[in-house]
Design goal:
heterodimer, A: 364 residues, mainly alpha, B: 319 residues, two-stranded antiparallel ribbon, two-stranded antiparallel sheet, 58% helix, disordered N terminus
């Protein structure tokens, strides 16, 4: 028989509960506070006691499972231990530090690690562009098969050289100019900063969404990713072809590349993320298929998250720079500098970070 | 020696069946787990699935907060910023980018800050945890939320008939195939045991029930305290009938809130048990069904717990 303050208990489980209950209640209180106000709201004493109390709760759970048939007690300890577990083993470092580390190490290192997939998606895009270019050059009517209408902005195989050039130089078309007052559209955008901002915002959110989609469809064995990348290339190629026919190749690339380097690369990175997912699903190697998919998914998410910044930059360049600067020389200069920047970022910084262990050991 | 060999031979056959049986029992009692972890202290933790209604409710609440937030942002810009109205050019940009940021980062931000919970999940007592039991990483949180757009919002848009331009001017089978594909994505959590959506699959996470720990009174305590230590109300044979499963059912019934219907149930239950164990009351003993049931619960639990201590676990009644 066990004694407690003069009262006798016949049952071990009842006695056990009376002895430990106070500690459980303390843990419950600390958890409730962390729950309401976050871990940071805990004072030093509470933080100090949390792990100890957690261990106590876990050991209580273990004992309770062995000796007690009080379902309510075991359920209580189960959820108490589970909650405490999340707080004890789920702690995170500061945010600012994490963001900084993400862009200086984790993102470029992950891209470097997935370099084979990145190369593959660039290859698919280039392939698509070549096919689109050649086909459209020989049969201009194919342009309509490749090009979504809303993207062409009135440019088509029948457009004259002047029409095409006018768009590339951001000049209003003659009939619009006659009207005098035009909408706050792309053509008139040179003067209205707020319209440019709207345009840039639209480009950013739209492209970022396309990028995320590219990643998300990846788990369908990667096939849709290849289709998206290839058709993206087709559009690009067809577009280049109609300008090339009018002898505007140089001007077109000056119009396209300043933001295009960043944007196309970002799309390819998202595509690489999707391909990695698909690959992990089809060829899990020594891992279980689900584990393999989860591991690839986390790497892919890092890449997609990083590309959000790239899409943002591309949106700024496309929305402001391209609308405000019409000369070819500064356009090519900017295109070249972004190319150099990304090359250095991924091939030099990323490689160094990956080899320096930025991604940690693959323990999972 | 013969007995030892025999038990070794029969063990592999009996072990899975008893395991299966225990699992079937848990499922019947609504206790099936979706995730079993071993803590670094070597204690298994069992997590149960959040119910489907809770998950849909949590999503709807979060969705409401996100779009309500964007709406409030818009109102504030119009009414608090001098010289701005609905047609101001920057208005659209701030709304576009702001909306995008809120939509993209709402879930990750909360799931990181609140250890795997958003306001909706908190309300529905749900939590996202890593399937391997490690800390919930930033990469996991983003992986499971970046797919949300494709998995939930896009199918919903398609299924609700608000088809984008993407699907216009295409052969009839394309929208059909897209719909099928979209509903597969949307209904995916219903077709696996852990109720993972594709985002969880890709991120290595799982959504589990996270009930607030509530410690109820010990039903046996009052009954055992009021009794002298060596006084037994029930005879040994009377406690040899039922097992753990019946004990848990009895506990469940006793914990229900009082009501006229409940009184009936208690009376019938007491009658059944008394008949089954062949109980012969002394004069005036336990006339009230609830008192009888509580005393029986305490005595039965004591008996079964003593069994546990010597390694004898009786799951359910014989035959």
């Amino acid at each position: 028989m066990w004694k407690d303050g003069g009262v006798e208990y016949r049952m071990k489980s009842v006695q056990f509960r009376r002895e430990r209950e106070a500690a459980w209640r303390q843990l419950e209180e600390i958890l409730a506070k962390a729950d309401r106000k976050g871990l940071r709201a805990l004072d030093e004493d509470e933080l100090y006691r949390l792990p100890t109390l957690y261990r106590g709760a876990v050991s209580s759970l273990s004992v309770a499972r062995a000796i007690s048939l009080d379902r309510a007690l075991v359920d209580y300890l189960d959820s108490l231990a589970a909650r405490a577990y999340v707080y004890v083993y789920g702690a995170k470092p500061g945010y600012l530090k994490a963001v900084l580390r993400f862009f200086t190490a984790v993102f470029p290192a992950t891209v470097w690690r997935l370099r084979a997939a990145v190369a593959a998606s660039i290859l698919v895009t280039v392939l698509g562009a070549t096919v689109g270019f050649q086909l459209t050059l020989h049969d201009p009517d194919l342009f309509f098969a490749f090009m979504p209408e809303e993207m062409s902005a009135g440019r088509e195989p029948a457009s004259s050289r002047e029409d095409l050039l006018r768009v590339l130089r951001n000049q209003p078309s003659p009939d619009e100019a006659e009207d005098g007052e035009t909408d706050d559209g792309e053509a008139d955008g040179r003067r209205d900063v707020s319209a440019l901002t709207l345009f840039a915002s639209y480009l950013f959110t739209n492209n970022a969404r396309v990028g995320m989609l590219c990643f998300a469809v990846g788990f369908a064995a990667g096939v849709p990713v290849i289709l998206v990348l290839f058709s993206n290339g087709l559009v690009l190629g067809a577009f280049a072809a109609i300008h090339h026919r009018r002898d505007l190749g140089f001007e077109l690339w000056g119009w396209l590349l300043p933001h295009g380097v960043t944007e196309l690369l970002a799309v390819c990175l998202c595509g690489a993320a999707g391909l990695t997912l698909g690959w992990a699903l089809v060829f899990p190697g020594r891992r279980r298929r689900l584990d393999s998919l989860a591991r690839a998914g986390r790497q892919a998410a890092v890449v997609v998250l990083g590309t959000l910044l790239m899409f943002f930059l591309a949106g700024l360049i496309e929305g402001y720079f391209r609308q405000l600067v019409v000369d070819d020389l500064p356009r090519y200069l900017l295109a070249a500098s972004t190319a150099v920047l990304w090359t250095w970022y991924f091939l030099v910084l990323g490689r160094r970070a990956e080899q320096g262990g930025a991604l940690g050991e693959e323990t999972r | 020696v013969t007995a030892d060999v025999q038990s070794r031979e029969t063990a592999p056959e009996t072990a899975p069946t008893s395991q299966e049986r225990a699992r079937a029992l848990r499922r019947r009692a609504g206790r099936e787990t979706v995730l079993d972890l071993l803590t670094p202290e070597q204690v298994p933790l069992h997590f149960r699935a959040g119910d489907a209604g809770g998950r849909v409710g949590a999503l709807m609440l979060d969705f409401l907060i996100i779009h309500g937030g964007i709406f409030v942002l818009a109102l504030m810009m119009v009414f608090l910023t001098p010289g701005w109205d609905w047609s101001h050019g920057l208005f659209g940009s701030v709304l576009l980018v702001g909306g995008f940021v809120v939509r993209t980062f709402y879930f990750p931000w909360f799931e990181l800050r609140w250890q795997g919970r958003t306001p909706g999940k908190r309300r529905a007592e749900l939590r996202v945890v890593a399937r391997d039991g490690g800390p919930l990483g930033t990469d996991m949180v983003f992986a499971r939320n970046l797919t949300r757009e494709l998995e939930i919002f896009l199918p919903l848009t398609l299924l609700l008939g608000m088809r984008g331009q993407v699907l216009l001017d295409t052969p009839a089978w394309v929208p059909l195939a897209t719909m099928v594909w979209a509903s597969v994505l949307l209904l995916f959590p219903l077709f696996n045991r852990q109720h993972l959506r594709v985002g969880d699959l890709v991120a290595g996470t799982v959504v589990v029930a996270d009930p607030r720990p509530v410690l109820a009174e010990d039903l046996a305590e009052a009954a055992t305290r009021s009794r002298a230590a060596d006084e037994d109300v029930f005879r040994r044979e009377e406690l040899e009938i039922y097992g753990i499963e019946e004990l848990e059912v009895l506990e469940d019934v006793l914990r229900r809130p009082a009501s006229p219907h409940h009184e009936d149930l208690l009376a019938r239950l007491a009658g059944t048990i008394q008949q089954k164990i062949g109980w012969r009351p002394e004069e005036g003993q336990f006339v009230q069904p609830e008192r009888f049931l509580r005393a029986f619960y305490a005595a039965q639990r004591e008996r079964l717990e003593k069994g546990l201590l010597v390694g004898e676990r009786r799951e359910t009644k014989e035959g």
